[in-house]
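Narrative summary of target 7.
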Amino acid sequence: MTKTLSVLFSIIIFSLIPFAFADSTRDNNLEFAGTLEETLGHFWALEQNLDDNNSELALIHATHPISELYDTMSGYLQDNPEFDKKLQSTLMDLKNQANTDVDIADAKLAIDSAKEVIQEARDIVVASDLSDEPEFQLQLINALLETAKVEYHEAITDGQISEMAEFQDGSAFVWRSQQIFVGFESILNAEDYQRITELFDTVWSDFDNLSSPDDMEISIDAIISEFEEQSGYSSVESSHNEEAENMAHKTSEDKTSEDKTSEDKTSHASDEKSSHASEMALSKMSPRAQMKHGVASGDVTCRDGFELVMKNSDNSAACINSHSVEKLIQRGWADYF
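Modeled conformation, tokenized:
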């Protein structure tokens, strides 16, 4: 990581409220803004399906914002009931426009109107200085990527797309996260920006090749770690994760012994093939991601210029800019292992 990028994010970290010091107001803003970003991802998927004349999938993506995201949005608009009603009406209108008799031109006008209302919602709930804050934007990127991993896990079975809507959800959230990242081109130097862009290219290649969910997770975690270590905020697993794990567990239980034996043989070969790649990927991951993949807290590897410390809040590992370690220890946030 170059000196310019390290200095940039060290300024962000210590001029704002980082890590465990983040308050509930920031968390609430992040949750609300996250629903807006997911909604914009659904709009993108909706437009793609309209262009492909796929009215069935278009309707699914037009429905998700009002059926899955609106309730969360509405909870933050209790002090503005008039706008809450406007938001609900706009999302309902979008759903009604994307039916089997849809006129593409009318539907796209409805999408444009919905985009304007989403921006209005952002302006009402999330303060402009927070929306424009690079650290906050990095948290949004990571939240979208965490959800994309879950959607991809639900979508791919045995190298095939088993749930097209979820597959498109995953790609839509990766797309939206990259759209936010594009805004960092003027902040990052060319080398850093190009490296992260190449990581996004790897994720898109995984989508194109229908890579295994585990391989996709490693590719996405590499991007998450780029922002996680620099912003000072660990990403949070998607709220959809528990549901996805339950579905995966049920599917596993439904397999016959014969299928399981065949699967174990295939899995063993696949594990050997991907083992080396996984080990190399770990060195690029954040401490949280390394521990998730089996690395003990005290054995986490930090990048050059970063130092391993223990967070006092939960005794987990963290990689901190070397020149910032003593400050965090003095504040009682961290200690040495």
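The mean pLDDT is 81.
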